[in-house]
Specification:
It holds the Pfam family START. Residues 1216-1235 are annotated as: Disordered. InterPro entries: START-like_dom_sf, START_lipid-bd_dom, START_lipid_transfer, XK-rel. It is a multi-pass membrane protein. By secondary structure, this protein is α+β, with helices and mostly antiparallel strands. The strands form three sheets. Strands 18, 19, 20, 21, 22, 23, 24, 25, 26 and 27 form a ten-stranded mixed beta sheet that branches. Strands 9, 10, 11, 12, 13, 14, 15, 16 and 17 form a nine-stranded mixed beta sheet that branches. Strands 1, 2, 3, 4, 5, 6, 7 and 8 form an eight-stranded mixed beta sheet that branches. A hairpin with a 5-residue loop joins strand 5 (78-89) and strand 6. Helix 22 (774-800) runs antiparallel to helix 27, helix 29 (954-985) packs across helix 30 and helix 29 (954-985) runs antiparallel to helix 33 (1088-1112). It starts with a strand and ends in a 20-residue tail after the last helix.
Length: 1235
């Protein structure tokens, strides 16, 4: 691309030109550009911020007028381009597309008033056929007048986008891989024919390089640590430059391998060259087997001048199975030396040897040796480091031709067939090995091993020491999606490529007397401070009733004497494989390694953990073989676990590639299902990489549908999940927000049953690992709660030591004590069936004041429920917050404000700080309760008319959460100040106000027949619970405005709004009553103007943030604040909904709330009971049956239940949900039109 200003100082006008070669015919490229409104072109323009693009007038088939509105950067106004396209074909065969700007008088109707500035563009597209019209040369020349005054910087930034149509076509029509493949195949055919004639110069080049580098024996090289354990790397230092050598086996026939090495003009190589410091390259072709190449490179070394290489490259057969590709530096007249560029030299020998095929896959060994001379003096350490980088060329070639999955799969299938047909007899020695191995499992079960944390959550592992022994032994178990035969075959194939580890120095089978018996030798590299280890063991497998056992016992052999510098270890192990049905197999793996000699504990633990992870590797290997068509939810979860677990691929990520990208790239290549998915949706890999990277950033917008998805859209959408995780309590809620926001993700969820479980699992693992988002919110709330407790304790001490305030100290101490007592009672309910030590531990957590932090940590680590516990961790956290607000924060704030106003030291920073902390704690807790209930997907799914008022995008959620916090804190402060002033008038005033206000609320509930609370209790318990719950909810709404309680089953929408207005009004009335009651010469606790300013300011702040909340929330939910629906109407509406799943919910509520429709409920049950007994829906369990009255159950069914002793009435614990444990979402919602 080129750009120039047309006139000096005229910054809104410019010329531009772009040129490229496309891998398509001129006609194809022309049609694409001429179709202004083509789907692909529309997608690209929308991604770039195009506001409008359409054809508004057609003159002929080759002549039409179009409109384009381009978005400009702030503060510039968007630009409108109106133009005319005209196309024709020249005599030379070139296709030409001319466009010009329409007159200023032309007007276009966009359907709305767009504020735009008219701009103009004129230019020409030329498409020239080349290479027999298999390619074309495209040229665009354009003149742009952006209209108005546009800064030069903005013009320079926008002009490449104007010219980007050429780059778009280059990308759309590029067939780099296909063209490179065709070139390789063409050259491979020439190499295979072997009809080349070589000159004396060419033969001399080959002979010199072969003798110089091929004659160096392997013993002269020292081993290098290879980043690719399937590539052997060596090198030696001679003079000022090193000579590296690398070798590996390629999964392709020898001619194609040599062709890839010889062709340096391949597009992939050219792109890699310029991406890695290349400045210039030229090729002079002499024949099909020889060329002279020139390259100039820069190296990222300070003061290091660019290096130029000029060399002759030749390939030649040495024999029927050996082919050489050599490179030797030379002098060439057309490439003279130049100042500032140092001439370097390089000699390279690539030796290709034909090997026996593996099955139907040909094999070729390549040995690459190079002797560079970079010129100048280079430190040996730099030479060694550069040598490893150069040898990675061989690794790239290996990966390019790699067919390891196919080779391993073919080998596994052969072994599966052998295992299924195996009937060889077992010797007494083999029987003894099997008996000894099986005893290891029972021996381990008798030990109390410590649980070992594994990288994969799906693997459970333990490690322990046998009594009287210093050697550790371990146990690991997991479940895989494969048959027992497939698992055993995978393990029995010792030499499979996937089983080769980076620390394997040698691995082989010394003996294999039968299909179930083999002698295995493995030599391992250990850290430098420890001698290398080797292991010799005999492996024997045998079928069992439901699977197989594979046992390995240590053994000695004259064929494997002990090596010097290598310590012989022992590695007895047993793998028990058991079929569990549904295509699943349970693995149990026991090892008791003796690494020999003295080994530090950290090394023992490292190797134990590494080897116990063998079951995880088996699980991943089996999962990798499952195709996309076989995937279900379990496959999605297993694959998700693999994607978020660190792998060896991360250690050797490429230049410019992150560790996560390297991990995901390797997984996408090796997992059949993901590979198929990547072929179906090319952008899916980008989506997963951005999701797993989990980098917190503002979420971008994308309205693309699945059919229009691109890598750019995937980049935006994938990166947005992190902000969703940051704004939600659970992973499920985060994914729910993410899918709702992006239409393409919603289509994926509907198209693939596994997509949602996969994303849920990834989000959960990310949620557990990050320090921001949920954890930050939880720990902030926990920190505020703990700080509130500490500040209250400080104020108790301050009041107790201040004459006249001892009563305040006692009152505040009672409030703190009641809060702790309430939490202790929760501990009792939670742990009454747990061991005593657990109960004592939890009580100590409460008494030390760290309970909020501990509960937050448990929720942040995934929630759930401990063994013997009755409540989920997130529900415990919610209840703890409610207790703190009702028993400590709210009454504590009232007391402290009252004490502060009565004291002489009203500027006491400690007292003011304690009040502010209490207000923030209360506001945070109130906001969190409402926020978490609303964003929970379960609530949004079952009560969409009530839950869902919080927006789906992360930025709006953050703003609305902040408004809720501040609004709750300000409401508590203004209420505390006004109530404190009213209390100073006299105790009766406060009592009269509170009693009358509460009486009005209860009268409202009674008159509307809405006193009974939803919890399904009976008798006295129902009365007590309903009164207490209504009382607590009223207090919380009065002082914090908990939005969750606007539900019909709680306070009700209309009374909630009325109550908030009355609460603010009461604050002004209280202030007026206080100052009106003062005597003429009596001085108030503060100047009246200050008091009104304080109450008015706090009230105004609350109104402002409340208004901001209403503006930010989804408009469709404002009606829930004014709903007149009662609790019983809400409950009865659930029964009126279609479907048994909805109707059966009435039994989760107090029977008094659906007494009016009890007859209808009875008819429904009687008519469907027999059908339920046959179909057995999941909810039709003993717990639900126990909630149904006897007279509602058909007589025959009731008789059978009583005869079979199945009938059991619900206990109080069951009614409360304690029998099976409460979940985090209680059915307390209800909104207008819930039916």
């Amino acid at each position: 691309m080129k750009y120039t200003k047309s006139v000096a100082n005229e910054t809104s006008v410019a010329f531009g030109m772009a040129k490229s070669t496309l891998d398509c015919s001129a006609t194809e490229a022309f049609v694409y550009q001429f179709a202004v409104c083509g789907r692909e072109k529309m997608r690209i323009n929308m991604e770039r911020g195009c506001e409008a693009l359409f054809v508004f007038k057609e003159h002929t088939a080759h002549d039409f007028e179009w409109a384009l509105v381009v978005k400009m950067p702030f503060p510039l106004t968007n630009r409108e381009f109106l133009g005319r396209f005209l196309c024709f074909e020249e005599l030379t065969g070139d296709l030409v597309l001319v466009f010009e700007a329409l007159p200023d008088s032309t007007k276009v109707n966009y359907g709305s008033n767009l504020k735009v500035v008219r701009a103009k563009t004129t230019g020409v597209w030329r498409f020239k056929p080349i290479n027999n019209d298999t390619q074309c040369e495209v040229t665009l020349v354009t003149h742009v007048d952006a209209g108005g005054f546009v800064p030069e910087r903005a013009m320079v930034a926008r002009l490449p986008q104007t010219l980007s149509g050429v780059a778009d076509m280059r990308e759309l029509f590029q067939r780099d891989d296909a063209i490179d493949s065709a070139k390789r195949s063409e050259l491979a055919a020439i190499i295979r024919a072997n009809n080349e004639t070589y000159t004396g110069v060419e033969n001399g080049v080959v002979d010199r390089v072969r003798d110089q580098l091929g004659g160096v024996p392997h013993s002269s090289f020292e081993n290098f640590e290879s980043p690719d354990h399937l590539v052997h790397m060596k090198g030696f230092h001679a003079g000022k430059n090193g000579t590296p050598r690398a070798s590996t086996v390629l999964d392709e026939e020898i001619c194609l391998c040599a062709a890839k090495a010889f062709i340096t003009t391949a597009r992939s190589k050219v792109q890699e060259f310029f991406a890695n410091g290349g400045l210039e390259r030229n090729v002079q072709t002499h024949s099909d087997h020889s060329f002279t190449g020139q390259q100039v490179r820069i190296f990222k070394i300070p003061t290091f001048s660019p290096r130029e290489f000029v060399a002759r490259v030749v390939w030649r057969w040495e024999s029927g199975n050996v082919l050489l590709v050599v490179t030797e530096s030379c002098l060439a007249e057309r490439y003279p030396t130049r100042p500032g560029i140092v001439r370097a030299s390089v000699t390279t020998l690539e030796k290709f040897e034909r090997l026996d095929p593996v099955g139907e896959i040909p094999q070729t060994r390549v040995t690459w040796t190079q002797q560079p001379d970079m010129g100048g003096l280079i430190p040996s350490q730099a030479v060694r480091g550069a040598a490893v980088g150069q040898m990675m060329y061989v690794s790239k070639m290996r990966k390019f031709f790699d067919k390891s999955p196919a080779i391993d799969a073919a080998s596994s299938m052969r072994l599966v067939t052998m295992i299924q047909n195996h009937d060889a007899p077992y010797t007494e020695k083999e029987e003894e090995i099997l008996r000894t191995g099986v005893s290891h499992i029972s021996m381990f079960e008798a030990q109390k091993g410590a649980e070992l944390k594994m990288l994969s959550p799906s693997t459970m592992a333990k490690i322990a020491y046998e009594k009287g022994s210093s050697f550790a032994f371990g146990y690991a178990t997991t479940t895989v999606r494969a048959s027992p035969e497939e698992v055993l075959a995978d393990q029995w194939d010792l030499l499979k490529r996937a089983g080769r580890a980076a620390d394997d120095l040698e691995k082989c089978v010394d003996e294999e007397p039968s299909g179930h018996n083999k002698l295995i030798y493995i030599r391992k590299k250990t850290p430098d401070a420890i001698d290398n280890r080797d292991f010799l063991g005999r492996a024997v497998w045998r079928a069992t009733a439901s699977g197989f056992v594979n046992v390995t016992n240590a053994e000695e052999s004259v064929r494997r004497p002990h090596l010097k510098g290598v310590v012989r270890g022992k590695y007895p192990s047993i793998l028990k494989v058991t079929a569990t049905g549904n295509g699943k197999t349970k693995l149990e793996y026991v090892i008791q390694p003796d690494f020999g000699g003295s080994m530090p504990a950290w090394a023992m633990k490292f190797y134990m953990s590494s080897n116990l992870s063998e079951v995880t590797k088996i699980q991943e290997a089996m999962q990798a073989r499952r195709g996309l068509e076989d995937w279900d939810e379990e496959d999605a979860k297993a694959t998700a676990e693999i994607m978020v677990t660190k792998t060896d691929a991360e250690k050797h990520h490429g230049r410019g590639e992150t560790k996560v990208e390297a991990r995901l790239r390797a997984i996408m290549e090796t997992h059949e299902g993901l590979r198929e998915l990547g072929e179906k949706h090319e952008w899916f890999g980008v989506l997963l990489m951005k999701v797993v990277a989990n980098k917190l950033r503002p979420a971008g917008d994308s309205k693309a549908k699945l059919c229009n998805m691109s890598a750019k859209h995937a980049n935006v959408i994938g990166g947005a999940l992190a902000s969703c995780i940051a704004a939600n309590l659970t992973a499920h809620a985060a994914v729910d927000e993410w899918i709702l926001r992006y239409p393409a993700m919603g289509e994926l969820e509907r198209k693939y049953v596994w997509f949602r479980p996969m994303m849920d699992t990834i989000a959960q693992r990310l949620l557990e690992s990050v320090s921001w988002g949920l954890k930050m919110r939880l720990y902030t709330g926990a920190g505020l709660s703990t700080l509130d407790l500490l500040s209250d304790l400080n104020m108790i001490y301050s009041y107790a030591s201040t004459p006249g305030q001892e009563g305040a100290a006692l009152s505040l101490a009672i409030m703190v004590g009641l809060c702790l007592l309430g939490q202790l009672l929760m501990v009792l309910v939670q742990t009454h069936k747990a061991p005593k030590r657990v109960m004592i531990r939890e009580m100590l957590v409460v008494l030390t004041g760290i309970a909020p932090g501990i509960h937050a940590m448990r929720v942040a680590n995934g929630g759930g429920r401990d063994e013997h516990a009755k409540l989920d961790h997130d529900l415990v956290l919610t209840c703890t917050r409610g207790l703190e607000m009702a028993l400590e924060s709210i009454p504590g704030s009232l007391l402290q404000v009252h004490a502060l106003l009565k004291s002489d030291d009203r500027g006491n920073k400690a007292a003011l700080g304690s009040i502010v902390v209490s207000a923030l704690t209360t506001g945070f807790s109130a906001a969190t309760i409402s926020f978490d209930f609303d964003v929970d997907p379960r609530g949004r799914r079952y009560e969409p008319s009530f839950y869902g008022y919080i927006p789906d995008d992360a930025s709006s959620r953050t703003l609305i959460f902040g408004c809720m916090i501040i609004n709750g804190a300000l409401l508590l402060l203004v209420r505390s100040v006004s109530m404190a002033l009213l209390a100073m008038v006299g105790g009766p005033w406060v009592l009269v106000y509170l009693v009358s206000d509460m009486a009005m609320y209860f009268m409202y509930k009674i008159l509307r027949c809405d006193l009974w609370h939803w919890i399904p209790l009976e008798g006295t318990a129902s009365v007590v619970e309903s009164v207490l719950e209504r009382l607590i909810v009223k207090v919380l709404v009065d002082f914090t405005g908990v939005i969750q309680f606007r539900g019909a089953a709680e306070m009700g929408g209309s009374y909630f709004a009325f109550n908030m207005i009355m609460a603010l009004a009461a604050s002004f009335v209280s202030t007026h009553v206080y100052y009106a009651g003062l005597e003429e010469d009596e001085e108030g606790v503060m100047k009246e103007g200050y008091a009104w300013m304080m109450v008015g300011g706090l009230s105004a702040g609350g109104i402002c943030f409340g208004t901001a909340f209403l503006l930010l929330m989804k408009p469709g939910y404002k009606g829930t604040f004014f709903s007149t629906q009662t609790g019983y109407q809400y409950v009865q509406s659930k029964f009126l909904r279609e479907g048994d799943e909805n109707k059966k919910e009435v039994f989760e509520y107090n029977k008094k709330q659906w007494l009016r429709i009890r007859g209808d409920v009875k008819v429904w049950i009687v008519e469907n009971w027999e059908r339920w007994e046959e179909e057995k829906p999941e909810w039709f369990c003993d717990a639900w049956k126990a909630k149904v009255d006897d007279d509602m159950i058909p007589a025959d069914s009731l008789r059978k239940m009583k005869t079979g002793q199945e009938r059991r009435r619900s206990s109080l614990g069951d009614i409360l949900g304690l029998g099976g444990g409460l979940t985090s979402v209680a059915p307390v919602a209800g909104g207008e039109n819930s039916a």
